[in-house]
Amino acid sequence: MIWIAGFRLLFFCALVALAGCGNDPSLATQNASGSSLSAPQTQSVANSVAEAPKSSTDEISTYTYEVVKVLPHDRGAFTQGLVFRDGSLLESTGLNGQSTLRKVDLQTGKVLKQIAVPSEYFAEGLAILNGKLFQLTWQNQKGFVYDLETFHLEREFTYTGQGWGLTTDGHLLIMSDGTDQLRFFDPVTFEEKRKVVVLVRGQPVNRLNELEYIKGEVFANVWVTPFVVRIDPSTGKVVGVIDFTGLLPAMDQDWTTDVFNGIAYDAKGDRLFVTGKRWPKLFEVRLKLKK
User: Fold this and answer.
1) Domain formed by 6-289, architecture
2) pLDDT tens across 22-45, in order?
3) Domain extent listing, the chain
């Protein structure tokens, strides 16, 4: 299937190129709808993509979604990282003075266990590997390693740049930093092993945020948009795009509601869960290939 035609192409490309930087919640709310994007801006970005060389390998599958189940979610949770494990969710929530690491009952949304992150840190992405929980912070260039069962803080680690999303392929930690790159780290030494630039037809996809590793691909939310890109982690090429426009009904939104963010996958049950920052609902979804 060929990329996104007409308006969808313009809209997606504009959001990828023009979304504001950082994870400032007020800026995210201001820009989330994309309503301020002008026609000249969208056309300029679209033209740059259209002029890139095309081949059969450039074709990108596009998806919409079907809601399988609607589950409760804490409206106060500024969701930054989300992981499924054994019928529960592990969640990292952000904002200075409000950041937490928590275990949440999938069916009820009840917080089963929680620790507060020190107020000087704005917590970000979360991943599970080798019985440990790894949590990033936004601008402090510091991450935390916890015991998976007890949430006991075992060690800290450092990295350069900002911390946004985090996932794992079972061997390395995979981090996004708000740019067009995915960075791969050793979970013991935290040495950066490699990085890839994420591209659509040779054009970089910026603002990569929440990550989830699913069936050999990295799913990444493009910040302040309802789009998730499916990335080949060996090359950085985008192989698919999921459009989650309209997922949270307007009647469930209020002045605190922020942008789409939060992807979790149940490998055993082959179930995909998504939510957003300060969303009162979590959605189990099934992807549908666009025709």
Assistant:
1) Beta Barrel (2.40)
2) 444 433 333 332 333 333 322 322
3) 6-289
